[in-house]
Amino acid sequence: MNKNEIRIFAPATIANISCGFDVLGLALEAVGDEMVVRKTSEKGIKITKLTGQDLPTETLQNVAGVAGLALLAASEYDGGFEIEIYKKIKAGSGIGSSAASSAGAVWAMNALLGNPFSKLELVKFAMEGERLASGVAHADNVAPALFGGFTLVRSYQPLDIINIPTPPALYATVIHPQIEVKTSDSRRILKTNISLEDGIKQWGNVGGLIAGLFTNDYDLIGRSLVDHIVEPIRSILIPGFDKVKEDALEAGALGCGISGSGPSIFALSEGEDIARSVAEAMKKVYQKIGVDNDVHVSKINTEGIKIL
Ligand code: HSE
């Protein structure tokens, strides 16, 4: 491969992780997009190929294009880039499709330029892609895609991202009922105020989840995977949500909730065998009610985006 071109894997991600709306996320190993990015003497960004999903290739309407332009604007490089995107992640499925394209584009461009930007700066550029996709520049998908593992957005102003360790036996199961929910729509239905009572429960769980991840305390991780604020509202948009969750927990999952803005549902389990039983249990619910679905069982991706 010549040094003007790079082929990468950009992982799917699970944002929120139940209690951490807009602040927590994790990267998956088994699902992700491929991208080829190459330097060109022509200025600007061109999306020269996009397969797997029906998405715009016009630079200003494509999340990779917009994130890439944010990087170019901050860079001294006076050439441009061509981007090929091979989508494996379905748009609107709730596992960070737009984040993979945005983060992948800026990570690859940075690598081709000799890494002038830090990962934190790349998160900022990639957030511009998220702004285009959902109307809000949230970082909880692009941060784990770029850093790998679990990430916490401790603050947006100024942006402060903390990488959290991954307990070795943790596996994710994700099921996607075949409907599309736009993040912008599933954000619109949320309330903008929460009660102090719900806040207390929620930040107790965020602290508990972080402590559990640091100490490999799987029970504590499970007890903390509870969302008192967003899930009760958004779950209404997801067919069979309560039953999928009940059966996933019954099959041994530590916890289960909505992946990002949905409609995918995720569960975390201790060990691959349990994660596979959880996948079977989730699938059965959708078979019974006649909803087509895709299911993935994945290790947590501690590396993030990587060269192929
Ligand atoms: N935190 C965002 C949301 C993630 O829930 O709207 C979207 O993938």
In a nutshell, what does this entry contain?
With 308 residues, the chain is an alpha+beta fold. 37% of the residues lie in helices and 27% in strands. The strands form two sheets. Strands 1, 2, 3, 4, 5, 6 and 11 form a seven-stranded mixed beta sheet that branches. A four-stranded antiparallel beta sheet has the order 8-9-7-10, sandwiched between helices.
Question: What is the topological layout?
Answer:
Layout (H helix, E strand, L loop, with lengths): L4 E11 L8 E17 L3 E8 L11 H12 L5 E7 L10 H16 L6 H16 L7 H6 L2 E7 L2 E6 L5 E8 L5 H6 L7 H20 L2 H7 L6 H4 L6 H10 L4 E4 L6 E6 L1 H18 L3 E7 L6 E2 L1
Parallel strand pairs: 3-4
Antiparallel strand pairs: 1-2, 1-11, 2-4, 2-5, 5-6, 7-9, 7-10, 8-9
